[in-house]
Structure formats: C-alpha cells, structure tokens
Design brief:
By secondary structure, the chain is α+β, with helices and mostly antiparallel strands. It is 28% helix and 32% strand.
Length: 216
C-alpha cells in the first residue's frame, strides 16, 4: 500500500461556501446553469468549461472522459470531437449520455442527462474554422482512440497534413459536434456536516420542468 492510499480515509473537507435553496434558484435549469457557469468563470476556477462525458457501449460497459463545452442554449449542450473515437462510436450505438461539471473551488457540481445528436455540418464547419491552425491539422493527424506505434505517428501525420493543406485544412468528415438535449439536471452545492443541497429538474412531456429537492 502506498503512503497516499493509507491516508485516504482521513481526508476531510467541510463545505461552507454557499447554499442552494428553492427560493433562490431559477425555475428554468438552463438559467440556473448559466448563472453558475458565469460565476465559475468570474471566480477564475481552473477550466470552468471542462465537463466529464459518460457514454455506454453496446455491451453496457460505461466510459468517461473530459471534454470542453463549446456552446449551450435552449436546444442543448454542445462539444466537438472525432466521430470515430470511442465516445463517438458509443454515441452512435446508444445516444443517451450524461455530463458533469465539478467546480471544486465553488463546492458545486452540475449533472446533466439526455439524448445526444450530431450538430449540423454548418455548425461544425463554423467552429472548426475558428480553431487555431495546429488544432485543425491535429484533427486530421490523430486517429483518436486507435492504437498507434508511438508519438512519431502523430508527428508524421501532422507534417503530412500540414504540407497537404497548408493554411486551409478543411474539416475532416469524421470530425464535428454533438449536442446533448437535457431532460434531467441536478445542481449540487456542498454544505456543512454533509447535509448538501441537491436540486433536481426533470422535464415533463409538455416540456415543463419539475424541480425537486433530493436528500444528500
């Protein structure tokens, strides 16, 4: 057993920064998310746009990875990736997924569940063309999630596609955006004595949101 492992049970933190009440929260979960994300950015927490994406394969085995939110509105939460990656293939077979934001410094977590679809080619093209040149070349150079012999494969591919496309690499056909359309949100605010605040929003068939408090 390592020294770190032997001390895990002793790690403690008292959550006392804020509270989350029904009266002070928005009836619309998107507005609540917008408020919390805005506050996370203003607080300059590390990578406030980072979110964990959970998908489930056809064999029911789940997997997670961190991706970056690139947009959000009433239609959903958007990120971009390689469609041939593990997450892309799993979403092709099972479009249900979950997202999680963890803003440690603010003692807050947001969990989002829903169905995922690809964004339009127009949206994917627009975002791809806004990326730095090396990132656009990288989208061609990396066969994401595939086994490669070494880093030299990536370097060689980057050089090849850089020479081929120069300053105008087009969007690869295997690269683009996904949008998760939420039907469930949960907002978690750490509180003292582990009596945390948890508010869950569930979408009804008529698109109304039902807000409920969950026990921590």
């Amino acid at each position: 057993m390592t020294n770190a492992a032997s001390h895990l049970a002793d790690l403690r933190k008292s959550y006392e920064r804020a509270e989350l009440s029904e009266a002070a929260s928005h009836a619309d979960p998107l507005k609540q998310f917008d408020q919390w994300l805005t506050e996370a950015i203003a607080a300059q927490v590390p990578e406030p746009n980072a979110m964990t994406l959970a998908t489930v394969a056809s064999n029911l085995r789940p997997s997670t990875r961190v991706v970056l939110i690139k947009g959000y509105d009433e239609s959903g939460i958007v990120w971009f990736t390689n469609y041939e990656s593990r997450k892309g293939q799993e979403l092709a077979g099972n479009p249900y997924a979950a997202l999680q934001f963890h803003w440690v410094e603010l003692e807050r977590v947001v969990r989002i569940e829903g169905v995922v679809e690809k964004v339009s080619d127009i949206e994917s093209d627009a975002y791809f063309n806004s990326r730095p040149l090396d990132s656009r070349i990288g989208a061609w150079a990396s066969p994401q999630s595939q086994v490669i012999a070494g880093r030299s494969v990536l370097v060689t591919n980057a050089a090849k596609y850089g020479a081929k496309f120069m300053l105008q690499p087009p969007r690869p056909p295997h690269w683009g955006g996904f949008r998760l359309q939420p039907d469930k949100w949960e907002f978690w605010q750490g509180r003292k004595s582990r009596l945390h605040d948890r508010l869950r929003y569930t979408q009804e068939s008529d698109s109304r949101w039902i807000r409920e408090r969950l026990a921590p």
